Amino acid sequence: MDEGKHEDSGVSKGGWTSLWAQIPVTRLVFFLTGLFGVTVLATVAVTALLINIYGRKQEARVPFVRVVEVNEATTAPEPWGMNWPRQFDSYQRTADTARIYGGSNSLPIQKLEASPWLVRMYAGYAFALDYRQARGHAYMLSDQLATRRVTERPQPGSCLHCHGSIIPTYRRLGLEALGQPADAPALAKEFNWPAVQKGFELTCAMSYPDAHAELLKTPDGTDKPSAHPVSCIDCHDPETMKSRVTRPGFIRGIAALAAGEGEAPHLPSIERWRKGDRSRPYDPNLDASRQEMRSFVCAQCHVEYYCGPKETLFFPWDKGLKVEQIESLYEGHQFPNGEAFYDWKHGETGAHVYKAQHPEFEMWSQGVHARSGVGCADCHMPYQREGAMKVSSHWVQSPLHTINNSCQTCHKVPEAELQDRITTIQNRHKALVAKAAAAMTEMLDAIRAAQAANLPAEKLEPILLLQRKAQWRLDFVSSENSLGFHAPQETARILAESIDYSRQAALQALALRLPAASEPQTPPPPPAPVQGVTPQGAAPVAP
Amino acid sequence: MDNSDPRSSPRKSGLVLLLLGASVLAAGVLAGVGAFTFGYANGLSYLRRDPEGCANCHVMQDYYDTWLKSSHHAVAVCVDCHLPHDLAGKYVVKADNGFFHSKAFTLNNFHEPIQIKPRNRRIAQKNCLVCHKDIVQEMLPESPQGEAPTCVHCHTDVGHRLR
User: Using CB atoms, which residue from B13, B26, B112 is nearest to A404?
Assistant: First the structure.
């Protein structure tokens, strides 16, 4: 048969059949193979999408599998990391120095070299030996063991309140002192607040090496116990993973703040407790909201405290969190031996002065972010997405590294603009610190000159008090780790007061050495009368 | 080339039939998997106006939560502000955002936190006026090309309140 005949018969029988028959079979095979291939690819793609959606749905359930038991004695972070690998991943990155230190694993820069005035302010105190920029959480214990402040000068065991994961050690020492079993099962059983308190007091009375040796003796939940820097257990309940506070210094300090008069409008649970019947002390683990706990866990350490050898470590919050409220508490405080409170005797002037630690929580409390309900973790441990999961980053670091997650959640502004705002605040802050530092060093020169003139000590006494006030304020600001960002206006206010006290002290010290100026012979001329802005005659007209 | 009549070769007709069958089968599998995926992904919810549908994709959960706390949650749902109100525009924008949102979330390559696109911001601004025009018309630019800050530039939390 030929094509023509077929076509004729096709037309007579019905168009479609004949059209179908006309298509060459090779083209049909190509077409069908192509169609088949495309359908297969589309099915693969849709199945891949289905699996992706399935994965996202599973992630959204935030599952975790408790593959190992963790308990109140598990200070080692690795077992926790098996149960909560995502948080552990970012926690481990606190050892990462690449971003800030260019990848160097040597000790960070010496602040004493960058700011020589610090050596004079800390004269006579171990910070004048060695004061470096801090590294990530992972280094808190090893860097403390390495600093010349600890290797070359005796330090008390209270330093480990914050630099080590120490609560089970407190519990063990407390249980031993109370004559109760203190083996691994007893340590793992419960938190046991009375035993922890007892152990805390005992370590504060120890030397640093002795307290560190106790840390090494405590089981850590692994076969080879060792000492750890801040670990999961310090901020999380091992049963529920809820945020919690464990440091005795903080728990006592925040209860004292609540019981006192100090303003705390940014901490609503304290305001609520104050309005209640106060039948028991304020307890952050019972009273605080989840959002407050996201700051309190950090405030266990990033605060001002006394941790010297003369008294058990304490947070000075009874009168409030502001710099002058803390100062006022110190001024009225006595050591158990009856001596008036001070941190150290200044090496240049002999003044009894106070040392500020790192009052980040106190400074944050005075800032606009605290008043807006923004906690430490919101910026320093921002939520990061992993698939459908929201994970709070445990790589605690400067929010400048995560401007998008830290700032842009609230501030709908480009990153460059936000960076610029922060830089502006911090540059102004640095300029003001430099002015305050210059005033402080000139004050020291003036006092030393007055002391060299052999003036009676009682005449110098009020000047040394001014020195303490000036230095305390400057130290409170320069030791605080935000370069003014946590509360820019409050920081500037404190520096202004510091400059004022430094200048007052310098003037008074100078006046002691100068003969009294005589009263003016004639009264000063009267002030000029009020003038109009425009001078006599017509204002000049531009040509 | 093969010049013979196709019907004269049963072997080739068989091949065509086989391919035809395979294609139909494959298309059936695609349709089945596609329909299942559509159902599993709550595809139908994207055609409705229930705000919970917008939070199917987990990225939107925070925006759903903050909408619940906002002043507008009693008077406006997602689509009232974020989609044009005419039928054609509504589905065009739905398709536009649906495609780009799915692509971003599947490939996981988007800016965090998410940021509204200029064309979507314009839609939201127009929708503010749908309800509030009578009050704010004095503040609007004279011509549609004129520049003016958007309503949410100042009224940041009317749609999504952070606390």
Answer: B112
Whether the complex's predicted ipTM surpasses the cut of 0.90: no
The three-state secondary structure class of A236 is: strand
Number of domains in chain B: 2
Q: How far apart are CA A39 and CA A56, in angstroms?
A: 25
Give the pairing type, strands A389-392 and A383-386. Answer: antiparallel
Minimal CA separation from B145 to chain A, in Å: 23
B55 phi, psi to nearest 5 deg: -95, 10
Q: How far apart are CA A43 and CA A37, in angstroms?
A: 10
CATH code of the domain containing B150? 1.10.3820.10
Q: How far, in Å, CA of A427 to CA of B109, rounded? A: 35
Give yes or no: residues B15 and B91 share one domain. no
Side chain identity at residue A144, one-letter code: Q
Best mutation target among A47, A369, A405 (most B Cβ atoms within 10 Å) is: A47
Distance CA A255, CA A259 (A): 6
Integer angstrom CA distances of residue A424 from A117, A421, A520, B30, B33: 24, 5, 46, 58, 56
Q: Is the peptide bond before B113 cis (omega within 30 degrees of 0)?
A: yes
B144 in the same domain as B72? yes
Closest of A139, A351, A143 to residue A131, by C-alpha: A143
B33 & B61 share domain? no
pLDDT higher than threshold 60 for residue A367: yes
Structural tokens at position A384: 């990061």
Based on the fold, state whether residues B121 and B65 are members of the same structural domain.
yes
Is B64 part of a structural domain of the chain? yes
Indicate yes or no: CB of A29 within 8 angstroms of CB of B26: no
Domain around B141: 51-154
Same domain, B64 and B139: yes
> Per the structure block, which two tokens stand in for A412?
């709908």
In this structure, the answer to whether residues B96 and B21 fall within a common structural domain is no
Give the integer Cα–Cα distance in Å for A105 and A346. 34
Is residue B46, in this structure, part of any structural domain at all?
no
In a domain, B160, yes or no: no
Nearest to residue A159, comparing CAs of A215, A111, A109? A215
| Residue A101 in this model has a pLDDT that exceeds 60 | no
Task: Give residue A7's pLDDT.
Answer: 45
Q: Are residues B84 and B26 in the same domain?
A: no
Would you say residue B162 lies in a domain?
no
**Cβ distance of A36 and B108 shorter than 8 Å:** no
Substitution target in B1, B3, B4, B5 with the highest count of A β-carbons within 10 Å is B5
In contact, A159 and A215? CB cutoff 8 Å: no
Are residue B77 and residue B21 in the same domain, yes or no? Answer: no
User: What is the rounded CA–CA span in Å between residue B155 and residue B138?
Assistant: 17
Contact predicate A117/A441, CB 8 Å: yes
- Residue A6, pLDDT above cutoff 50: no
State the Cα angle at A208 between A206 and A211, rounded to 5°.
Answer: 60
Q: What's the CA gap between B86 and B95, in Å, rounded?
A: 14
Q: What is the pLDDT along chain B (163 residues), one digit of tens a residue?
A: 444 454 446 677 788 888 888 889 999 999 999 999 999 988 888 888 899 888 888 889 899 999 999 999 999 999 999 999 999 999 999 999 999 999 998 898 899 899 999 999 999 999 999 999 999 888 888 777 777 888 998 898 899 998 7
Token digits for B89? Answer: 């525009």
- Which has the closest alpha carbon to A285: A274, A296, A298, A275? A296
Scan for tokens 């008294």, then name that residue. A311
| DSSP letter (8 states) at residue A339 | P
In contact, A265 and A216? CB cutoff 8 Å: no
Say how far apart CA A76 and CA A20 lie, in whole Å. 76
Parallel, antiparallel, or unpaired: how do β-strands A344-345 and A352-353 relate?
Answer: antiparallel
